[in-house]
Design brief:
single chain; 267 residues; alpha/beta; Rossmann fold; six-stranded mixed β-sheet; 10 strands; 15% strand; globular; ATP hydrolysis activity; ABC_transporter-like_ATP-bd; nucleotide-binding
């Protein structure tokens, strides 16, 4: 996106984003951070195609996917190549396997064996395979209403596995740890960090065919960290240390306790 200004239809005079320029490169992970209401979720909504980006002026493309301007992109095709992890996990009533398999694209024809292999790889990537395998019915265990009750951390891991099984080219996570306690939040952040560093089995197997991109509205171990304030990009850096040493907006987030902390020592 280049100089993107966006206002929600019901508040046209109050831009949620103002002149934001942001590149999300293939093979990199971008963390967008800032206080509540700064514009993080607005960017997520635009990436998911929930709103059309407001043009800066007629004939100027300010929002592109690859080489194509937003107006020329077929939204169904775009959405079939991306996955989304929401703030609050949602679990369907069927089995664990079905919950993960819901992430497969509608046009992704796979055999039963391939389906199970991809489900298992996704579960391994989020460190749930051993837990699932220990259950009497394994991946056929029913969860949700009338079934096994998962903890908040387990439910969020299952949602991440559902997102990863698709082999997305674009993975979007909107504050995936905001509803978790400190221990489970740290575990989920470690999963994200492992994916970023390529240490997850999924990075070598499930996601191998596509060189993907990831974007999160919070994160540790990201390649690029973008700081938003009141809809404006105010800072960008390649590491937490770089931004802390700059003593700018990110440093103020850290000192104010807004930035997350984890048991791994990353912030």
């Amino acid at each position: 996106m280049r100089g993107l200004t966006f206002a929600y239809p019901l508040q046209p005079s109050e831009p949620a984003l103002r002149g934001v320029t942001l590149d999300i490169e293939a093979g990199e992970c971008t963390a967008i951070v800032g206080q509540s209401g700064c514009g993080k979720s607005t960017i997520v909504s635009l990436l998911l195609g929930l709103y059309n980006p407001s043009p800066r002026r007629r004939g100027t493309a300010t929002f592109r996917f690859g080489d194509l301007p937003y107006s020329e992109f077929e939204m169904q095709s775009l959405r079939s190549s991306m996955s989304y992890v929401p703030q609050s996990p949602f679990i369907f009533p069927p089995s664990i396997a079905d919950n993960i398999a819901y992430g497969l694209a509608a046009d992704d024809a796979v055999s039963s064996d391939d389906r199970l292999a991809r489900i298992t790889l996704a579960a391994r990537a989020v460190n749930m395979h051993d837990f699932i395998a220990s259950l009497p019915q394994g991946y056929d265990t029913v969860v949700g209403d009338g079934g096994l009750t998962l903890s908040g951390g387990q439910a969020q891991r299952l949602c991440i596995a559902r997102a990863l099984v698709r082999r997305p080219r674009l993975l979007v996570m909107d504050e995936p740890t905001s509803a978790l306690d400190a221990k489970n939040a740290a575990a989920v952040r470690q999963i994200i960090s492992d994916l970023v560093r390529g240490e997850s089995s999924l990075c070598h197997d499930v996601a191998a065919p596509a060189k993907g991109r990831a974007i999160a509205s919070e994160g540790a171990g990201m390649a690029i960290i973008v700081v938003l304030e009141d809809g404006v990009k105010v800072e960008e850096g390649r590491s937490v240390q770089e931004l802390e040493q700059a003593s700018g907006p990110f440093s103020r987030l850290v000192s104010g306790g807004v930035w997350m902390e984890s048991d791994t020592g990353n912030r």
